[in-house]
Design brief:
The protein is α+β, with helices and mostly antiparallel strands. The protein has 2 domains: 17-106, 2-Layer Sandwich (D-amino Acid Aminotransferase, Chain A, domain 1); 111-267, D-amino Acid Aminotransferase, Chain A, domain 2 (Alpha-Beta Barrel). 24% of the residues lie in helices and 32% in strands. It is built from 8 helices and 13 strands. The strands form 2 sheets. Strands 5, 6, 7, 8, 9, 10, 11, 12 and 13 form a 9-stranded mixed β-sheet that branches. It has a 4-stranded antiparallel β-sheet with strand order 2-1-3-4. α5 (142-148) links the parallel β5 (118-127) and β6. The longest helix is centred in the N-terminal third of the chain and has 15 residues, at 39-53. The termini are far apart.
Length: 273
């Protein structure tokens, strides 16, 4: 395989396989005063994705190059790696020349959702089962796009996704966590879904159990959260079904704050009283 090319300016050629087929990967990470948060976890997930897709992993200095342009505040860096151009139809080139692009943008988190919790709904769309792609952040995210198109009400912060067999997986852009019978749990992601870097870091510092569970787990839960490495952790206060009917309510309290504090310490976000 050819070595990855260095970072290129914005813009995709029409024959780029990432644009044509979703043949690539991306990472979205929080940058605080030029320092990337959960950098090791992002690099590890990107490496797993490269291995799964057979794309050469770029050297770390190429991936870190955009940080030289970071400002003093809070920003989000998106790294996009494709297989590049070439091949015939779906057949990939024998020696891919990956293409790395990036975008750095100022960011302000929605702190109101930290404090007050969020309203979420179940999605009609069910995620397909594909263990070969489970856990990685590949570019083909049409399932997430279709799920997110199910509602337009800005009061609904997220949608929860089940797989084709009715197991809880994630939200459209965040991982899912809950406490049930005093135990912290999160869906197992061996069949589909994205293994978030905040989720990975929390599994290293908390007793967080991966489980196969359906909606009944949330009905038994004492507290529920959504989280990712950019937004931090949102307590879930209200859950609705696909028709907007209420299913459960969780008053935001001390249990929510304890888990949130663990996550926010990893991202430099405030721990709330």
């Amino acid at each position: 395989m050819a070595a990855p090319s260095p970072t290129e300016p914005a813009g995709w050629p029409l024959d780029d396989r990432g644009a044509a087929y979703g043949d690539g990967l991306f990472e979205t990470l929080l940058v605080r005063a030029g320092r990337p948060l959960l950098w090791d976890e992002h690099l590890a997930r990107l490496a797993r994705g490269c291995h799964a897709l057979g794309i050469p992993m770029p050297p770390e200095h190429d991936l870190a190059a955009p940080l030289a342009e970071a400002g003093p505040g809070l920003e989000v860096l998106k790294l996009t790696l494709t297989r590049g151009s070439g091949g015939r139809g779906y057949r990939p080139p024998a020696a891919p020349a990956p293409r790395l692009r990036w975008q750095l943008a100022a960011f302000v988190p929605d702190s109101g959702r930290w404090w007050n919790g969020v309203r979420v709904r179940l999605c009609r769309l069910r995620l397909g089962l594909q263990p070969a792609l489970a856990g990685i952040k590949h570019l083909n995210r049409l399932e997430n796009v279709l799920a997110r198109s199910e509602w337009q009400d800005d009061a609904i912060a997220e949608g929860l996704l089940e797989d084709a067999e009715g197991r809880l997986v994630e939200a459209t852009a965040m991982n899912l966590f809950w406490r049930r019978h005093g135990r912290l749990e999160t869906p197992r992601l061996g069949r589909c879904g994205v293994a978030g870097t905040l989720r990975e870091a929390l599994m290293g510092c908390l007793s967080l159990h991966e489980v196969d569970a359906g909606l009944e787990a949330l009905m038994e839960a004492e507290a529920v959260w959504l989280g990712n490495s950019v937004q931090g952790v949102w307590p879930v206060a209200h859950l609705e079904d696909v028709e907007g009917r209420g299913l459960a309510v969780w008053p935001v309290g001390a249990a929510h704050r304890a888990f949130q504090a663990e996550a926010h310490a990893l991202l430099g976000y405030p721990c709330l009283p």
